[in-house]
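Sequence and fold
=================
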Amino acid sequence: MVEEAPPSAAPTPSAPSGGATSSSSAPPAAPASSSSTGPAGSGMLSDKNMPAREKDWDPFRFQPRQLTTQCIKRVHRDILQMQRDPSPGCFACADEEQSAVIHCLVVGNDGTPYEGGMFYFYVSCPDNYSISPPRVKLMTGLGRCRFNPNLYSNGKVCLSILNTWAGPSWSPANSIATVLMSIQSLLTEKPYHNEPGFEIERHPGHVKAFNDVVQHETIRFAVLEMMQGLEEDRLPRAFGPAMDDILTAMFEGYVDICQEGIALDGQPFQDPFGWNRGHFQFGRLLEQLHTIKLQVDKRVAKR
């Protein structure tokens, strides 16, 4: 995987057949899962071989604790910073019940297979934040999809500033906004090359094959399932306006992606890493998009 320069549990919606505010969402506990690793010889580290600090990444493994005043003040400051100077495609809302928990939304970059995808990250800050980095877990597609070499299917986010990968480590000068922008920078045009040893395409067509899978699963999980979770009140309510606006603005683009991908329907995924298994179903995703759009239009009309 490539390291980019820094620029109560969360919900897991069931799979479908900008600003910072507070959220009262009380989602169910996340499922336990083991760390994913890459193919033999890929150079990826497993949790077993990492130092203790790098293994301590999962926010749901923490016991209830007494937060320091320093931690609470710094979390509040980070959220205010995102309110005053929001980063494009990055949103955050504080959890009303847990002062050190922040619910974050990162939107996929234009011109990439992640375009328009809405990726939900559950962020929990340790007692000594910002001396130590926050713990971050990707909840979108949890346990069912690996979108990127740096984003494991168990939710682990591999970034050096989170102390979960080699490279420049966390500094107290960093912030939640820094983390979100670093994650967003991983959502590249050709994520295949993020995997160590795959800087050059090993076999013709592998880059496109991985992109096809990522694009399909982005629509499936990071658009449709996320919108379904919002409709069923299983995501932070504060995400609502931003997600509705993104769906409205990106709808025609989503439709174009599905229409172009229908030729692949029925074919098995050809993930060169073997991480994602399944069959393309762009036609079904297209039908679900139109259903979701009607729900969004009704919500927007009530604003």
User: Anything to note?
Assistant: The first strand starts at residue 21 and ends at 23. Confidence is low (pLDDT under 50) at residues 2-51. Residues 1 and 194 are 4 Å apart (CA to CA). The helical segments are 52-55, 69-84, 176-186, 206-231, 240-261, 282-301.
